[in-house]
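Hello,

Following up on my earlier ticket. Below are the two sequence lines again, exactly as submitted.
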Amino acid sequence: MANRINREQVKHVAELAKLEFTDDQLDALTPQLDDIIGLFESLGEVDTTNVEPTSSVTDQLNVMRDDVAEDWGQSHALLKNAPDAARGYIKVPTIIDESED
Amino acid sequence: MNYFKSDLASLHADLVAKKISSKELTQATFDNIKATDPKISAFLHLNEDQALAQAEKIDQAGISDDQPLAGIPLAFKDNLVTKDEPTTAGSKILENFKPVYDATVVQKLNAAKMVAVGKTNLDEFAMGGSTENSAFKTTKNAWDQTKVPGGSSGGSAAAVASGMVPAALGSDTGGSIRQPAAFNGVVGMKPTYGRVSRWGLIAFGSSLDEIGTMTRGVKDNATMLSAIAGHDAHDLTTSTQPVPNFAADLTAATNVKGLRIGLPKEFLAEGVNDDVKQAILAAADTYRKLGATVDEVSLPHNKYGVAAYYIISSSEASSNLQRFDGIRYGYRANDVKSLDDVYVKSRSEGFGPEVKRRIMLGTFSLSAGFYDAYFLKAAKVRTVILNDFKAILKDHDFILGPVAPTTAYNIGSEVTDPMTMYMNDILTIPVNLAGLPGLSLPAGFSQGLPIGMQLIGRPFDESTLYKAGYVFEQNTEFHNQIPTLGGQN
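Thanks for your patience. The regenerated structure is below:
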């Protein structure tokens, strides 16, 4: 294995991505990512001196509009999709873990 | 009622003449789905009651000449949001999700009085080329149920190919309409980036995603695209260019005389199956006989498309999929003790392995210290690939090539090896990077499985692709073959 990315780096990237993997999953994922990143490195063969990056291919540029809030009258329907809701609010678990104080 | 061989125009004529009613057609569609789908598993969700009620309403109002799609059933890929109907994107994380609005394309087809019968299976969040990455079921190829239907719009392609619906919508980020269309022997169009509003398409790679049409014939496809295309204030990347009546240009007089076609040598290179190669060379000969010229051309940076694409699409996906955090909608893990737990556990339990792999690749490519080497480099290579296409299309009307290196492969054969899966997209991906229109249509068979060919055009010139596709169809028999399991045969 060329070691373009190691197990510790994979764990770091997982933290950034808010994902977690078991040890077995990390064992499988690390060489897969390493392989694919190896493919990514083939781009080094392309001379991109003085080439501008392309981030979008739309023919529309800088379309502006007023930032106006609209009431679609759907807050009830939206809340039905929330995993947990009460009295018009989305419920989440306690954010501050008091046991750590 | 057998309408497997009817095109949209003849269904429309029968509806206007009241030879059939929309309700009869819709009921026949559901009867047929119930008989066929147990073998194919194309659908994730059916809405029979609403569809029949809607068809009845359409019948009562009457269908006039100027409503070419009214009363005709269709299916939507399940990453297009449909109000009050389940929309999962093939993911456990959206298993119980019911959108509060319709995607723009859904609104447009509702306004055209089409009858939506259900939602079709896909690779989770449209990430994959076999529909095996769906969290819910494995869809089978309409021609051989041991083969994959392609993907990610595999459900839409198999539903159309097996005669369950005359038309379906799909989405295409790196080939997800064209490749399953090819694997199932149907017609699939990925329009120019900006031609169709993406509002209500669950985002994967926003600079690459495009919604398109899947049908059994070229003319049907053209009719459908005119109905869904156009500027939309809800998607400011949509173009303000006028939308032609594409189907009106497809007549007995349509021809390809004098057209210049480019055949990139890289599209017939190593890795492309011999039968596929022969079918494309035969198609080139057909076009020559019909009065077009076909030149060998070169896309010298084509082989870098896969790497550039997987960096760009995964980066965009890792950003787009941050919204799935277990708070406002979607799956939330049980037994969580802190806010960070909600995020991490909900995402880790809700997303499947391929989606996680892409999020990891994207997060890596965008992370501090790696951004310049990966994401920025890929964005520059994208410019180089775009320029390769521009150079050819300056003096060629369109580019001809295969859609995929092989025909449909065995279910289970590639899903464990992401690298093999990614390399299969080598012929479709560059078109998304360049934002060009690409049309996939039947061009042959290999061991009983359909071969697709791809026509790639200039921005907003879908019209030339439809004309060339239509002429090819008029002069070949591939599109007349239908799978033996066939919905209604």
